[in-house]
Amino acid sequence: MSLLQQTLSAIKPVDRTLLQAAQSRLDNKTKPIGSLGQLEELASRFAAISGTLAPDASRKTIFIFAGDHGVTEEGVSAFPKEVTPQMVFNFLNGGAGINVLARHGGIDVKVVDMGVDYDFGSLPGLIDLKVANGTANFTKAPAMTRDQAVTALEAGITLATEAKSAGISMVGTGDMGIGNTTPSSAIIAALSGKPVRDVTHYGTGINAATLENKIRVIETAIAINRPDPQDPLDVLAKLGGLEIAGIAGLVLGAAASNLPVVVDGFISTAGALIACEMNPVASEYIFAAHKSVETGHGFMLERLATKPLLDLGLRLGEGTGAALAMLLIEAGVKILNEMASFEDAGVSKSR
Predict the structure, then answer these.
(1) Which of the residues are catalytic?
(2) For residue range 262-284, what is the model confidence (pLDDT) as tens digits?
(3) Which domains does the chain have, with CATH numbers?
(4) Is the CB of residue 291 less than 8 Å from the CB of residue 310?
(5) Which of 14, 53, 247, 266 has the most CB atoms around it within 10 Å of its CB?
């Protein structure tokens, strides 16, 4: 049995008994029942996923998966693909938006080369899991072979497993890859059957004419490759990106390891969606960080039956939304662990 098959088989539903026990503990804190709203839900879910009523949320890591896309040849992005490696260097040097927010939140950032069309060599802080120098132009051929997609998935799975073994308490997803809103829109269109126009937006800030081209490109890719919506691995291989596959693997590995995973925006959710199409139970381990301005993201969240924690008009990616959401989750867990009960504080619970 392959690592992917083993991981899919290992994912089990979150312990409902532990979920209820955590909520009962929260109900006995010195506050009216339910008065901390969604913070309580975050805490109880985190405890149930982690398998303990006294979870630690302090050790946080965001993995930024990077990869290039052959479809940039079709003029779908406002930026050239050379920006992908340039931004990888920026991450490694600590100068990107995610680095700032991660420092603010005490979050470690790991940069993962899944498929950047650049030879970085050996660099401190860069995890080299490169499967290929980017995907193929999916208007002419499948983006990846099925074997490449599995390899990328298993790379993400391994990162989650290693994080759990290292004592990391929650992981977050981030992405970097010029052109990657195009495969993300293609994925939700293929899986949902919704018109490409309804799930495709401006990405990095393209103009109206480029958006029309982007829509035509995705429609062409779906028509040529004919991805099977009943086979999420087929959809991933034919339309996805190597960084999207890595994110999907991280989600699957986290779910199999009882590790909470905070999913960032549009591209990250494309990966999470593939993971949950492969095993729907994986969705129980996901915290959706925020709602992106990308139109397709709302359809992804709806298909995952999850609500985002934040709606701040973000569209940067990198894991920036995940970094902010992690702080809210950690705050909820601290309420569970540190807030006094009525008995502890000598406060009357009711009249």
Answers:
(1) 318
(2) 999 999 999 999 999 999 999 99
(3) 3-54+336-345 (1.10.1610.10), 60-328 (3.40.50.10210)
(4) yes
(5) 247
